[in-house]
């Protein structure tokens, strides 16, 4: 695979570097100003401070929002992964027209802007009496995360040779056993990717959650509420930097794990 | 083959139960939360606003207002233009990066893939907000320009303009287009490039006649994942766009918020979905025709 990669890409190398600079420059500014000893994010810099990070640690509302986001994210991750596994497995192995239809509808939210998903579910949860709440946000985020989980898992189930399932059937395993003992273990790396993807999608999601939130905000909703107050901006930037640092650590750890795990699958 | 009667009965019942248990979560989520919820939007769009949850009576007044008041046509057109420019810009700028990843990155590939996907892990709100810091009246760009002696008064032309919305959205959704294009380019066998070269095609001709058409599914997938969320975005217009950049998502949001006219907001949502469907059908047919010629 790597053999056909050539050392020189001509102008492409510098272009990719410029692209990455464009991608990271605004983010880098947030990190820079989170250490700046001034409320206003402008040059010249006023001096180094950690006070915005101290304010972050002391903030109770923020901690509540963080716990909310983590709880919602974990629930969404579980539900979206279970739905993704069952939907894609039935589509690939169930051979029924209904399973194909369900899988197509599950990927539909990819074509619906978040604002439409948000209002559609707002009408639904109000009609059902559930109302805006954490559970409503979970439902919204499951819809947003579902297309990605189905696409990832479908690709994985498709890549497993049919002969493996047929061999298990010939040896007397019925459907449930084939799924639980053969196909699911083979798809496990993809299941893990899907679960992580769903968690991240939920953790960062704002547009849908905005419509469905009750009295307890998620982290993005808390950030949104603080963006109106110029005085709390440095703290919000410190929060953004902390999330970024945590993400880099997590993404880096996932990458290291992926490289060192034996028999890694195309996930 | 001797089969114990108990397990034989189970193997008759099991497939049905297994299918049902496996099918239930997906069927419930897709039928109730997707199809029924969307049907509710369509239903509400045909109702009159009386302040109640589902409105009253049946009427086409919401759609009439949409069609007759030029304001809505303008906002819709603006949303389409902004989302169109953003989609074009992200796809065109992402293509060379995907190309580099697929054909030239070598050992650096996983590092660059990592760097390109990392912004997925950072807060979307903060990526948008970063541009507000940069473009604001007392912001980074103005203060830097003053510091460098290029201007002496802060300029007002950066923030609160449709251009600010375009650049912010293009930045926020930039990495989304790279992965699908990269996957499509990766899948093209190198032998096709070599065959084109052997037949005397210059590199650009190989690109235009062989690689580009084969990577079109990836380009289209990338365009969809950028276009759909940008056309309905209401965060970016609110943070950097100002009143001159109101988009259709902003109108839907305020219909369900301050304006409190849910049926009209539902009609706007139906209009957005219709426009997305239309854009999708048009690009698909154009794509097919182009693919047929190439």
Shape of chain B: globular
The profile of the biggest β sheet of chain A is: none
Continuous helix count of chain A: 12
Highest CATH level, the class of one domain in chain A: Mainly Alpha
Give the SSE string of chain B: HHHHHHHHHHHHH
Q: How large a portion of the residues of chain A is in β-strands, by DSSP E?
A: under 5%
Overall strand count of chain A: 0
Largest sheet of chain B: none
Based on CA atoms alone, the radius of gyration of chain A comes out at: 23 Å
Category from helices, strands and their pairing of chain A: mainly alpha
Mean model confidence by pLDDT of chain A: 86
The largest chain-to-chain contact, stated as pair and per-chain residue counts, equals: A-B, 87 and 93 residues
Q: First CA to last CA of chain A: what distance?
A: 17 Å
- Fill in the CATH topology of one domain in chain A: MetI-like fold
Which architecture of one domain in chain A would the CATH scheme give at its second level?
A: Orthogonal Bundle
CATH hierarchy class name of the largest domain in chain B: Mainly Alpha
Which regions of chain A contain 5 or more consecutive residues with pLDDT less than 50? 1-7, 263-267
CATH topology of the largest domain in chain B: MetI-like fold
Structural class of chain B: mainly alpha
């Amino acid at each position: 695979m790597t053999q056909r990669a050539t050392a020189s890409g001509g102008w492409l190398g510098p272009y990719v570097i410029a692209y990455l600079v464009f991608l990271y420059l605004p983010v880098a500014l947030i990190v820079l100003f989170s250490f700046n000893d001034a409320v206003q994010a402008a040059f010249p810099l006023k001096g180094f401070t950690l006070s915005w990070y101290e304010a972050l640690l002391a903030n109770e509302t923020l901690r509540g929002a963080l716990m909310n986001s983590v709880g919602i994210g974990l629930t969404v991750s579980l539900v979206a992964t279970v739905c993704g596994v069952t939907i894609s497995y039935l589509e690939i192995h169930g051979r029924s027209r209904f399973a194909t239809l369900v899988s197509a509808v599950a990927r539909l939210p990819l074509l619906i802007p978040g604002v439409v998903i948000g209002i559609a579910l707002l009408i639904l949860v109000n009609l059902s009496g559930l109302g805006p709440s954490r559970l409503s946000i979970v439902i919204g985020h499951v819809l947003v995360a579902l297309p990605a989980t189905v696409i990832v898992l479908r690709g994985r189930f498709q890549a497993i040779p049919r002969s493996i399932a047929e061999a298990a059937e010939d040896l007397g395993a019925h459907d449930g056993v084939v799924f639980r003992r053969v196909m699911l273990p083979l798809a496990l790396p993809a299941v893990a990717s899907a679960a992580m993807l769903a968690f991240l999608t939920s953790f960062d999601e704002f547009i849908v959650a905005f419509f469905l939130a009750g009295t307890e905000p998620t982290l993005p909703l808390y950030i949104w509420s603080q963006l109106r107050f110029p005085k709390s901006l440095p703290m919000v930037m410190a929060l953004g930097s902390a999330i970024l640092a945590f993400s880099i650590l997590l993404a880096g750890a996932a990458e290291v794990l992926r490289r060192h795990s034996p028999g890694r699958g195309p996930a | 083959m001797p089969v114990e009667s108990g397990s034989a009965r189970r193997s008759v019942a099991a497939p049905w139960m297994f299918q049902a248990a496996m099918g239930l979560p997906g069927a419930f989520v897709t039928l109730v939360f997707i199809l029924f919820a969307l049907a509710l939007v369509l239903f509400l769009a045909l109702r009159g606003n009386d302040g109640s949850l589902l409105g009253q009576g049946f009427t086409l007044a919401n759609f009439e207002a949409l069609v007759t008041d030029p304001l809505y046509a303008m906002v819709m057109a603006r949303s389409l233009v902004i989302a169109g420019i953003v989609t074009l810009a992200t796809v065109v700028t992402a293509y060379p990066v995907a190309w580099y990843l697929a054909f030239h990155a070598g050992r650096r590939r996983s590092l660059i893939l990592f760097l390109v996907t990392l912004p997925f892990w950072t807060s979307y709100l903060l990526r948008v907000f970063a541009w507000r810091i940069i473009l604001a009246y007392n912001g980074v760009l103005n203060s830097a320009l003053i510091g460098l002696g290029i201007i002496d008064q802060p300029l007002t032309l950066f923030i609160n303009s449709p251009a600010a919305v375009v650049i912010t959205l293009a930045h926020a959704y930039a990495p989304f287009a790279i992965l699908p294009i990269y996957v499509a380019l990766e899948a093209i066998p190198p032998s096709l490039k070599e065959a084109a070269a052997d037949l005397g095609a210059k590199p650009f001709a190989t690109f235009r006649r062989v690689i580009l058409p084969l990577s079109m599914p990836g380009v289209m997938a990338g365009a969809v994942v950028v276009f759909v969320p940008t056309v309905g975005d209401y965060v970016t217009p609110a943070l950097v766009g100002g009143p001159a950049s109101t988009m259709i998502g902003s109108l839907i949001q305020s219909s369900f918020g301050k304006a409190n006219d849910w049926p009209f907001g539902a009609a706007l949502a139906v209009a957005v979905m219709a426009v997305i469907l239309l854009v999708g059908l048009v690009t698909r047919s154009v794509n097919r025709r182009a693919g047929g010629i190439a």
